[in-house]
Amino acid sequence: MKKKIIVLGTGFAAFRFIKKINRNLYDVTIVSPRNHFLFTPLLPSTTVGTIEFRSIIEPIRNVAGISFHQSYCTGIDAAEKNISCRDEDTGREYKLGFDYLVIAVGEVTNTFGISGIKENALFLKELSDARKIRTKVIDCFENASLPGISEREKKDFLRFAVCGGGPTGVEFAAELHDFIEEDVKRKYRDLAGYVEIILIEARDSILATFDKKLSEYAMKIFRRQNIVLKTNSLVSEVDKEYIHLKDGTSFKYGLLVWATGNTSTDFVRLSGLETDKRGKIITDGFFRVKNNGGFFDYIYAVGDCASLRDKELPATAQVAQQQGLFLAKYLNKKTGEGKAFNFRNLGMLAYVGNRKALADLPQYKGTGFGTFLFWRSAYLTKLVSFKNKALVLFDWIKTFVSGRDVSNF
Ligand SMILES: Cc1cc2nc3c(=O)[nH]c(=O)nc-3n(C[C@H](O)[C@H](O)[C@H](O)COP(=O)(O)OP(=O)(O)OC[C@H]3O[C@@H](n4cnc5c(N)ncnc54)[C@H](O)[C@@H]3O)c2cc1C
After folding, report:
1. Residues 171-206: pLDDT tens digits?
2. Which of 23, 148, 257, 358 has the fewest CB atoms in 10 Å of its CB?
3. Which residue segment(s) compose the domain that 196 sits in?
4. What is the CATH number for 18?
5. What are phi and psi of 18, to 5 degrees?
6. What are 81-137's pLDDT values in tens digits?
7. Ligand 1 atom closest to Cα of 10?
8. Predicted structure pTM score
9. Mind giving me the DSSP string for 187-208?
10. Domain of 354: which CATH number?
11. Residue 108 CA, closest ligand 1 atom number
């Protein structure tokens, strides 16, 4: 009889795992509040319409031979080998039994408990977030276009703040810049002069995980693009109208996007599983979850929510995918443990606007237009299905030829 595997999540780690696990050996059930896989590296491009939303998602039900339940996992009973689940829509609660459990629930955006962030800022983690940002950006322009709006009000509506100088914040600011240069100047001609993009970062540089020269290049490009860089700056509070900084200054904003890194989900925090100081589930080199003095041999954790013993790996899609693939291969093997997981760093890429990108690869560090073409072709090949590759390519051509769509719906 086939053993039953439950996979929690439909992100990078889970999706890679599901694709590789041998379904002749296992019955696979997926539990996730999201019924699709999302290709996050291109998510910032959807916030201004460079790429359309549906072009970067893969419906999970397209994967043959799996069962799927659209729910949150709310608890694990390790001794009884079952999980509790809850569907947000209907409020229905139920339990599922398993032989093996794979936890790949990712993380959520960290607000550091700063007052007003949850209520007033927008995040950039899910497709629904990107949709909210896109609507809000267009609303800011439409509001600023109303009759009787003063010069000062126009400036306030069109002050776009981004908090977090990591890849997500930087790529969103870059996309916003392109939108203003390429579309606002045509479609909201009178407003282009009022727009201001402000990037707030706690450290003294942006893209701090990249090579120092590349990080400096990104700052130079941003300054040239008139993006205001507020480095060494901390947000202390946000209200409906103002962003307050720790240095005592405040300014009005039309939109605030909060992209300051991750923290563990409530589910992980309340799961009773052992976590490290960053709140990640502690695992051994085979992703077996820590259990008192030893490790479970039937509960695993992979991706952003997991911490690999002795190694602090970055919270990236690359790491999550490699871990999901490793675990599937490990469980597919009928005998022997083999070698523990070893991360292979393939490097990092980031888009900085105006058809320029950065590449920080093990053998190559690059900037500029050539790297932008490389960035696009790398992500085009990494998109999962032929359908999405075709859609993204079509979106890029459409944006180049006729600009971004500014309809609000
Ligand atoms: C805008 C953006 C851009 C990025 N760009 C890059 C990039 O260019 N390169 C790169 O390497 N990385 C990038 N990343 C990081 C990358 O997306 C993450 O590291 C990666 O998604 C982690 O994969 P994961 O499977 O651990 O979690 P996720 O992909 O976050 O998936 C978590 C899954 O778990 C589900 N879930 C949550 N709670 C529960 C629950 N209680 N029960 C069941 N399911 C649950 C979620 O719905 C989701 O399906 C980017 C991230 C963002 C947000």
Report:
1. 999 999 999 999 988 899 899 899 999 999 999 999
2. 148
3. 117-261+347-402
4. 3.50.50.60
5. -60, -40
6. 999 999 999 999 999 999 999 999 999 999 999 999 999 999 999 999 999 999 999
7. 49
8. 0.96
9. HSGGGGGG-EEEEE-SSSSSST
10. 3.50.50.100
11. 30
